[in-house]
Design a protein that fits this description.
The protein is α+β, with helices and mostly antiparallel strands. It is built from five helices and 17 strands. The structure holds 2-amino-4-trifluoromethylsulfanyl-butyric acid (MF3) and cobalt (II) ion.
């Protein structure tokens, strides 16, 4: 028999706080609760905010330059130069062997697209640019969609609904809610609009590492998944598909995630801080 080890041990050397009591209560009820490391100190939060400001600067720069005829390698260069110019490091570069500084995912590519000289943005494309930054050891992560010129009404709707999914997920995330509350709200909105939610990839804790606990899944049941408490920093990044939710990884590069039916996909992402009042966007 394996003994259960408390994720939130009774704090020594200090009085119990209101937050301790709540977390201990939920753990007692059998819920997954954060470990102390997932609750950031004010100093760590300040560092993540600095990192996020650079990350937002990168996305604003990409937004100002992106256009038809540009290659995704040019986007990669913009990201690399801006980031390094601000004494920061693009987090994707060499991450588990990822070869570039940013993920660029066009149309049926869901995420983790690799920038290339040979990939030229075309009128009507929808593209996700996913930027992640390390500054003084602190990580931030956000992505936006861009519509190149004019696209079809269906693709426009997909981009809009994916953004609404992020906003809705953000609104339901109150202190002492669960990851499943966010996922449930997102899935509901996607389905209501005739779209599906990718299940194989999720949001994540972020800040001291690129990917920390919890897994922020974008589907599911209310009251399930990890308890979210003030001081936690994590992303919400729903990937919404026009057709099936099923995806596969391109066998040639082992990175690019593509929809199984090759219909388009859209994604928006922010890094958030949970506060006493709800989520604060750090990457805007
Ligand atoms: N921003 C992506 C995420 O949220 C990370 C992709 S970076 C890669 O996890 F190197 F893994 F491609
Ligand atoms: Co992310």
């Amino acid at each position: 028999m394996k003994l259960y080890r408390r994720r939130w041990p009774v704090p020594k050397n200090r009085e119990l706080t209101e937050m301790d009591r709540k977390i201990m209560f939920y753990e007692e009820q059998g819920h997954l609760v954060p470990t102390p490391k997932l609750i950031k100190t004010p100093e760590q939060i300040a560092g993540i905010i600095e990192s996020s400001k650079i990350n937002t600067g990168v996305l604003d720069l990409v937004e100002s330059k992106i256009k038809a005829g540009m290659s995704t390698a040019e986007i990669d260069k913009l990201v690399y130069d801006f980031t390094v110019g601000h004494d920061a490091i693009p987090a994707p570069l060499n991450y588990e062997g990822f070869p570039k500084s940013v993920c660029t995912s066009i149309n049926e590519v869901v995420c983790h697209g690799i920038p290339s000289e040979d990939e030229i943005l075309q009128e009507g494309d929808i593209i996700n640019v996913d930027v992640s930054t390390i500054y003084k050891g602190y990580f931030s992560d956000a992505s936006r969609m861009f519509i190149i010129g004019k696209t079809t009404p269906q693709k426009e709707k997909l981009v809009r609904v994916a953004k609404e999914c992020l906003e809705i997920g953000m609104k339901v995330a109150k202190p002492y809610c669960f990851v499943g509350d966010i996922g449930h709200a997102i899935e509901r909105h996607a389905k209501k609009n005739g779209f599906s939610v990718v299940r194989d990839l999720c949001g994540h804790g972020v800040g001291l590492e690129f990917h920390e606990e919890p897994d922020v899944v974008h589907y599911g049941r209310q009251g399930t998944g990890m308890l979210l408490v003030p001081g936690m920093v994590f992303t919400i990044e729903p990937m919404i598909n026009m057709g099936t939710w099923k995806v596969f990884i391109d066998a040639d590069d082992d990175w690019t995630v593509v929809t199984e039916d090759e219909l388009p996909s859209a994604q928006w992402e922010h890094t958030f801080l949970m506060t006493e009042k709800g989520l604060k966007i750090l990457t805007q």
